[in-house]
Amino acid sequence: MGRYVLEDLRVLTYYIRRALNAGANQLDLTNIQMAILNFVALRNYEHIDTCQKEVEDAFNISKSSMSDSLQSLENKGLIVRSICQDGDSRRKMITLTEKGKKTNEKSFKFLAEVNEKVLSPLDENEIKSLSDILDKLIKNLGGQKI
Fold this sequence. Notes:
By secondary structure, the chain is mainly α. The protein has one domain: Winged helix-like DNA-binding domain superfamily/Winged helix DNA-binding domain (Arc Repressor Mutant, subunit A, Orthogonal Bundle), CATH 1.10.10. The protein has six helices and two strands, in the order ααααββαα. It has helices at 2-26, 31-45, 52-59, 63-75, 98-119, 124-140; strands spanning 79-83, 92-96. Strands 1-2 form a two-stranded antiparallel sheet. A hairpin with an 8-residue loop joins strand 1 (79-83) and strand 2. The longest helix has 25 residues, at 2-26. It is globular. The mean pLDDT is 88.
């Protein structure tokens, strides 16, 4: 029975990724770049500095892949990287530029629309149950939510 559930999750993931990629493409971003902007913006909103290592850990991707994504965001004028406040010149703090903030606002609206579309057939109790179940599955596999 578990095999069929995994197949359902794979299909659902395919459709969600397709929708997210469409939105990211409209903003001239990749899906991961859009997620990075959102991650940094949320941390900035909570007054938490964000260094590259924290983003790497949160997204569980290699240093080189993260560096490529951040370089692209920097080249597009969406972020700036500077030395983290701990003074370690090897650690780079990531900050959104004004252009990055505006782009993130557009991506956040888009993410909210996709979220609404995906969850619209469910009531609040079903959404809560789904979230709890997904939390358990993620933790069971040694992961954590971003």
